[in-house]
């Protein structure tokens, strides 16, 4: 698997040369080897940028807020001033999540709650990027444990803070794993963490968003080009494919059923891509069920190929060495963590990105546009089924 991934570097070229895709190499980003999502752009919404073995997880009650959010009082002359928004970001201790937290905190308009599994790492990370204490707090959340998710939600509700934006960003990627590993409740780790953990979290926090008086409430679930088979990157094997969901229905436990959603043999890279398809389907199902009644804006995005993040930590050293320069100098699809953070921060708060049910991407000039999802990632019937099966798995329905 590892060597297979490294061997993907040249395959990016051959696909392009053969002209089997309408993507330009410059605009591409393979993950296996990731390329940017500028394929099949049907509308270009230029935006004004506001910002330049079975594992058991121990649920720790170490939830703590380093600071309380501040609220801006109404201005003296009876003018209403928009209070600071409160945004919860999962996996904000590194990479995209941290860069987004930083961008929002620096804007002065947001209090960021960093929902992280490693409290000390998150605190160090916030300090390392110079986030001012009054602009963030940290709460413990391990998405690989549904009990931890429920504990987080209870702690959040008890804190009395409003919830204006929820960003489901955390993820694990195990491209070289030979055997599946599992969440505390026994679900394959990638889908269990990236999809089921976030599914329960966002369902349990939806009420809080409904109650918020913030004018532009948003629920964002980070997607990926790699789950979209209408792109070059999405066609790098193993391709995402949820099949008839038989593995998901069986609980992904690897015992009496497969650990993979489609019921096939375990493949760590595919499990990640499948989890991203679930993320994008979940966003659309949220939109279909709740947007009209609640006004909440539901979105997903592909932030670009951020080749330097910890997401690739389990890849072979050769891949980690070659991937960033390959993206920078060959494909030119490389996006820095800072730039990707600004993009996600845009989806959180830019007044022009208020259309719900959208999967955002950015072109080479860093202008956002509404991108097309693959047939599977935009299949309404599959979205409904994934939602219903996931509800059962996380204990929201019988
Ligand atoms: N990098 C790319 O090129 C790329 C491209 C497209 C989409 N994305 C998406 O961007 C998002 C962020 O990824 P990244 O590239 O920034 O990777 P990253 O630096 O590895 O960040 C992932 C974060 O998720 C956290 N996390 C992992 N398991 C968790 C768990 N069980 N509970 C709570 N948090 C957990 C990690 O926490 P620790 O710090 O404790 O490990 C880390 O903070 C993901 O959704 C990914 O799919 C990335």
Feature tags:
two-stranded antiparallel sheet; 398 residues; 9-stranded mixed sheet; globular; 12% strand; alpha/beta; binds NADP nicotinamide-adenine-dinucleotide phosphate; 11 helices
How would you describe what is shown here?
The protein is an alpha/beta fold. The protein is built from 11 helices and 11 strands. A 9-stranded mixed sheet has the order 3-11-10-9-8-7-4-5-6, sandwiched between helices. Mean pLDDT is 84; it is low at 1-78. Bound molecules: NADP nicotinamide-adenine-dinucleotide phosphate.
Kindly provide the radius of gyration, computed on alpha-carbon positions and rounded to a whole number of angstroms.
Answer: 20 Å
Distance between the termini: 38 Å
Strand order of the largest sheet: 3-11-10-9-8-7-4-5-6
The profile of the biggest β sheet is: 9 strands, mixed
Multimerization state: single chain
Helix percent reads 25-40%
Contiguous low-pLDDT stretches (5 residues minimum) are: 1-78
Please, what is the average pLDDT? 84
